[in-house]
Design a protein that fits this description.
By secondary structure, the chain is an alpha/beta fold. The protein is 40% helix and 14% strand. The strands form four sheets. Strands 4-11-10-9-8-5-6-7 form an eight-stranded mixed beta sheet, with helices on both faces. A four-stranded antiparallel beta sheet has the order 12-13-16-15, with helices on one face. A hairpin with a 2-residue loop joins β6 and β7.
Length: 480
Amino acid sequence: MRIPLEPASGVPLYRQLERWFADAIRSGALPLGSRLPSTRGLAADLGVSRVTVTTAFAELEGSGLVVAAVGSGTRVAPVLPTVAARPNPRPVAAAAPAPAAEAWVDAWAGRPGGPGLIAFTGVGDPAAYPVVEFGRTLRQVLAREGAAALSYAPHPAGDPSLRRTVTQLLASQGIGVPPESVLITSGSQQALALVCQVLVRPGDTVVVEEPTYDLALRLLTSVGANLVGVPVDDHGMRVEQLAEVLPGSKLLYVTPNFQNPTGATLSAARRRALLDLARTHDVPVFEDDFAGDLRYSGRATPAIKSLDDGGRVLYAGTFSKLLMPGLRIGYLVAEGAIRGRLVEAKQVTDLGTSLLLQRALDRFVTVGRYQANLRRTTRLYRERRDVLKQALETHLPDARFTVPAGGLFTWVTLPPGTRADELLVAARDRGVDLASGERFYRNPDDGLSHIRLNFAVQPPGKISEGITRLAAAVEHLRGR
């Protein structure tokens, strides 16, 4: 085929190739149902990489112009899609509020200035979600697999291809496990729920960081666990205090990377000491790596799981924080006899995570879009972290706060005499939402001098305006 490509034009070669085929298909130069050249042969003819051709064909498939099938190559679709208006690639949506705040958000929206709500809550920025790209991938999976993609997953542990992909991602982090050790879950929250279902009984002691992830606290409390807290400082959990509380415990829950809510990273020395203590006292460790990929500065610290040679560490990760929260797809790495019990618990809980979403996510990750989205998101959130730092230094100089090396959250210690619960009300009166520190402690009163701010949700201008309003709320409380 003679296809004019211009390497110096500034338009990516795969995009030039896609446009040429799209024009040829829509004009009728390539008849409906006709077969396209093989990716290998076309790449050789044009003198480009096979990846360039494969990417162009994937774009065509996502547009509904071609259909690919194993064994029969890629063909022009038998019926072409109608041309619709192109969707906005960066839809703007408000961050999801915490459940307890929903009524307040609804009320604020109806007030003068209500649309100006600035929320430092939620997960990531909806405008950064790869909506168009992932939607294209979903269409590709449905076109290729049809009704089969809408069936139950072939195994409750998850789609074999996605589990292999997860092991490849883990290998890049120094975690070498076979696909059989991976259990696909509905987010990392379900991973913890399954572990609790298998290991924790009412009255059992579970050791947690203090403060720690609020929904983990609520889950562990709901199963009747006796929670024991170990303080967190700038280097993560104070592991030297573990020796006093770990004997007899049934589980140790830890978020070593960019801890929620403090943003602290557990040092390498403490990770090794933690694992040594867990071995000594025969206690399983649940390592929640909810946002480990979102690193903005410093070197990556080896996962606790990468140091584990006895299958003691249960490692949980998720795609929700980086891609889209609504995916609800995460994974749990478990080895030994406990794995079978976890798979059984997963099966009786929900029969398996959505096969369509698993297949689409696997395709999305394996074609390289995941890594591209990671680089883009990391740049975006790093800038916002730095903007928040500058705004806090300027407008709240009496407050102390963390500058996390990654993740989503900054932990703020309020100026003396300022209570988080009162500040929450005063801030909401000024159109700012935040997470009060009480949520993250076993005893809520212990969190009254802290707030958590999510810097990923808002663009830089909104961050600066939000902190200006927050500072006004602090001054209002001081002047009462």
